[in-house]
Amino acid sequence: MVTDRNGRGRFGALFLWAIIAGVAALVGCLSLTAAQAPECRPSTEAVDAMPTQTLVFGSEQEHTIDARLAATESHRAAGMQHLCPDVIAGTPILFLFDEPVTPAFHMNNVHAALDIVFVDSDHRVIDVSRMEPGQRSLTRPPGPVIAALEMKAGAAAAYGIEPGVRVEW
User: Fold this and answer.
1) Residues 31 and 60 placed together within one structural domain of the fold
2) How far apart are CA 119 and CA 156, in angstroms?
3) 98 vs 72: CA distance, rounded Å
4) Three-state DSSP class for 133?
5) Separation between Cα atoms, residue 134 and residue 38, nearest integer Å
6) What's the confidence (pLDDT) of residue 29?
7) What is the pTM of this model?
8) Number of separate domains in the chain
9) Dihedral angle sign, alpha carbons of residues 85, 87, 90, 91
10) Residues of the domain holding 51
């Protein structure tokens, strides 16, 4: 046992200092995390660099939507991250894939709820899912897709977009 010059055990004092240091570090990390929480932005370089693509949904009652086109890996990786909710509301993004895939979408750094519309190789909607800010689980389509459209929550229903609807671009 280690003792101080008065013969008292120092284990208790060291243990107390270790607890104090641990708590201080934890509080510091929590404060740092809050301070580093990403703010929303009116635009990002990735979104600004995406070209626009017109989508046509349906056959009898057609609806057109102009969306940003995320056809490169870097554009797909950026998606809606860091955009302010009002920007997300007016900026649908179409994720195009070179071949059918089963991608996973996250909501890290996304500041508004989204609908995600999954489109198969026949250009038919196979699923519409809702994603929420802070959602920790990944959102995947029920099968391989060639495209996914992210848009503000509720927009898919407003446009009549549901499984079975045809999409052209």
Assistant:
1) no
2) 13
3) 10
4) coil
5) 13
6) 41
7) 0.77
8) 2
9) negative
10) 45-168
- Give the separation between CA 156 and CA 66, rounded to whole angstroms: 14
Same domain, 104 and 31: no
Q: CA dihedral defined by 111, 114, 118, 119, rounded to 10 degrees? A: -100
19-69, pLDDT tens digit by residue? 444 444 444 444 333 334 468 999 999 999 999 999 999 877 789 999 999
Q: Which of 99, 102, 111, 92 is nearest to 155 (CA)?
A: 92
Pair 84, 132 in one domain: yes
Facing residues of 151 across strands? 115
Domain match, 29 and 74 both: no
Q: pLDDT, tens digit, for every residue of 126-165? A: 999 999 999 999 999 999 999 999 999 999 999 999 999 9
Specify burial of residue 151 (Cβ count, 10 A radius: 0-12, 13-18, 19+). buried
Helix, strand, or coil (residue 13): helix
pLDDT (tens digit per residue) in 83-113: 999 999 999 999 999 999 999 999 999 999 9
Rg (CA), the chain: 24
Cα→Cα distances 41→109, 111, 132, 144, Å: 11, 10, 18, 32
Integer Cα distance of 42 and 103 in angstroms: 27
Helix boundaries (H) for 40-138 = 45-49, 73-78, 85-89
